[in-house]
Amino acid sequence: MATKTRELQPIDVYLASVRDPAAKKTLGALRMQLRKLLPGAIETISYRMPTFKVDGNAVAGFAFFKTHCGYYPFSGSVVPVLESELDGYSTSKSGITFPPDEPLPAKLVKKLVQTRLAELATREKKPAAASKKTLVTERVTDSAVKEATGRDWKAWMRALDAAGAAELNHKQLVAHLAREVESGWWRQSIAVAYEQARGKRVVGETATTGFQVGVVRTLPMTAPKLWELVTKQAERWLGKGATLKLEPGKPYEVPKRRGAPGVRGEVRVVKPEQRLRMTWQPDGWTKPATLQLTLMPKARGVSLGVHMEKLPDAKAREAMREHWSKVLTSLAQD
Predict the structure, then answer these.
(1) How many CB atoms lie within 10 A of CB 103?
(2) Which pLDDT score is estimated for 128?
(3) N or C: which end of the chain has fewer CB within 10 A?
(4) What sign results for the dihedral spanned by CA atoms 303, 99, 49, 185?
(5) Beta partners for 206?
(6) What's the pTM value of the predicted model, to 2 decimals?
(7) Are 260 and 323 contacting, i.e. CB atoms less than 8 angstroms apart?
(8) Cα separation, 286 vs 288, whole angstroms
(9) Candidates 3.30.530.20, 3.40.50.300, 1.10.10.10, 2.40.50.140; correct CATH number of 211-332?
(10) What separation, in Å, do the N-terminal and C-terminal C-alpha atoms of the chain show?
(11) Close Cβ partners of 125 (under 8 Å, ≥ 6 residues apart)
């Protein structure tokens, strides 16, 4: 009797085409984990990558690109929500890249999936005009938050007031919510809603650090080499004519030039080959922002993260995002 052969699924075909052994092993394991996290999901190919869909919505996808693997939640909100837990990874609003021989931790994959599912559940229940609204309590309905967390918005406000949440910073508030709320997306949403309701936050701004922005890039060099570049070639990342002495308390200055304002600041923290923290105040800013560079060795290079806090407004945030993206692109070509 002839043995019936199993018909290959689209993802089987994709994985069979991956020639890198480490990538094939990593993505195969990731597929198995997604199957457990998303029982009943449809496995298909979307945007030329293996994709898991739930009720017609893409929830998770992965791919291999010559030298690195990528994970994609098919959302521009999931990665920003989990920003603190993705420190050290090369990210964009739409995905995460990582070396083939360094799989994403299982707990992180679980949080990425849960956050995407929570987002989809909320989207299905909010009004069509919600995208134009700014407050979390306007974008997310009472029934949605109650179904997902057990409380509506008024109940959450009362519970958090009773717990003294008004005295907590954002990180502490999220940690407090973690005792009851499993989803990272819902913890962040409830925390922001509470801060908005109690006047501790405005749209686009965190309660403790003001407007902020982060850019991460993996550079093809070692941490010692990158640190030497930061130390001895300040003009490469601060601007032409920059003077910098890496000692806490030392001021620095970048002269004004065509198309770019002058910048001044003070070095605050110096940890060789690890971290540099300083103030950053361009001409025209009434108060300085905080600038931090973080180096993290990776399997194939070093990750350089640039993070700015206490920016004056959303316009400055976007200008700094563009500025530092260009700087990191330039350094990657060194």
Answers:
(1) 19
(2) 43
(3) N
(4) negative
(5) 210
(6) 0.42
(7) no
(8) 7
(9) 3.30.530.20
(10) 63
(11) 140, 141, 143, 144, 147
Residue 127: the pLDDT is: 45
- CA distances, 166 to each of 163, 193, 195, 200, 241 (Å): 8, 12, 8, 8, 45
pLDDT at 234 exceeding the cut of 90:
no
Tell me what pLDDT residue 201 has: 58
Q: What local confidence, expressed as pLDDT, does residue 131 receive?
A: 40
Q: Please choose, from the candidates 246, 248, 247, 250, the residue with its C-alpha nearest in 3D space to the C-alpha of residue 264.
A: 250
Q: How far, in Å, CA of 271 to CA of 267, rounded? A: 11
Instruction: Count Cα atoms within 13 angstroms, Cβ side, for 16.
Output: 6
> Per-residue DSSP letters for 133-175?
--SHHHHS-HHHHHHHHS--HHHHHHHHHHTTGGGS-HHHHHH
**What ranges do the domains of the chain cover?**
10-102, 126-197, 211-332
Confidence of residue 156 (pLDDT cuts 50, 70, 90): very high
Structural tokens at position 96? 């995460």
Statement: 10-102 belongs to CATH 3.30.230.70:
no
